[in-house]
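Complex 351.
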Amino acid sequence: RQLVFSGVQPTGNLHLGNYLGALQKFVALQDVYECIYCVVDMHSLTATLVHDDLADQTRAIAAAYLASGLDPKRNIIFNQARVPQHAELAWIFNCVARIGWMNRMTQFKDKAGKDRENASLGLLAYPSLMAADILLYRATHVPVGEDQKQHLELTRDIAQKFNNDFSERIAALGYGVEMKVGEERVNGFFPLTEPLIEGPATRVMSLRDGTKKMSKSDPSDLSRINLSDDADTIARKIRKAKTDPEPLPGDLEGLAGRPEAENLIGIYAALAGVAREQVVAEFGGRQFSEFKPALAELAVEKLAPINAEMRRISADPAYVDSVLRDGGERAGALAEATMKKVHEIVGLLTD
Ligand code: AQP
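Predicted structure with adenosine-5'-tetraphosphate bound:
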């Protein structure tokens, strides 16, 4: 059985990186797989504990899911806090994972900064909760941006260690599924989940600095296009985007050492749904003064309807809550079934 799981944190405005790296792919995958899409609200406590409007932010991400085209009937859409088994499985994974594994995570190093002793324990254990999110549903595929690749590798390490440590009990209970690890065929309870990191915009960069990831937490609003930006703002941000003085190259090799040009070409390709080769073939030799208006027009064409739909859906918070409640019930039933087996495998006395 193949199943997709992914999530977005309710930590501020969604930007074009979140859209191209995650949401746009979620929508395409709903036609191919059974999918579960979560608003991972408990993750948002790891860096900032007290939020002014966490419930509203949670609804806003759910509205963005729906506005991007996710169907709440075909997919399970819910927020993490409604299904307490996420935290429960994360605790077990905290006991499976090693501190050294967590210490090596680049996102932890970046977010904790120099004063690591003062970072929250939750920030360090973040990947354990992420592994629990995915493995609670025994998801086989996770669409994410490039920045989450390391966390997905850790998810596989946790699954593999759990499968190894409890191999005898898993086999005795008959809960194992045959899977391939390298050349070996083993019996495991949790799948070794594959990341889905594909396409021309797996790492959208800041519009002000092509070497930095486009991010919600960048202090400059000009560095990102927010899904809530209106058409004029989108066009202004693209006009002001940093570029070099050369015309666009006619092939992909010509993008080497030109991170800003590479970023804008990648964004254009992802929005248009074409390969980057096609974009350089079309715009090669032209100046940014010609390319930027074309990119702005395309971005507005794709994002304006999502923006309008987000506003329409957000005006009805009771509807958004009903989607999250219904999704939470469906996710909760699946989570309960997994945890019943996990309790038995681990030997926890719960019934
Ligand atoms: N720049 C990006 N390019 C491509 N994909 C991206 N994602 C994030 N930034 C980019 C993908 O969006 C999904 C949801 O991300 P998240 O909300 O869980 O958290 P994040 O990665 O921490 O988002 P930000 O904007 O980068 O927040 P801060 O500023 O807090 O670091 C994920 O699939 C992610 O890969």
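DSSP finds 13 helices and seven strands in the chain.
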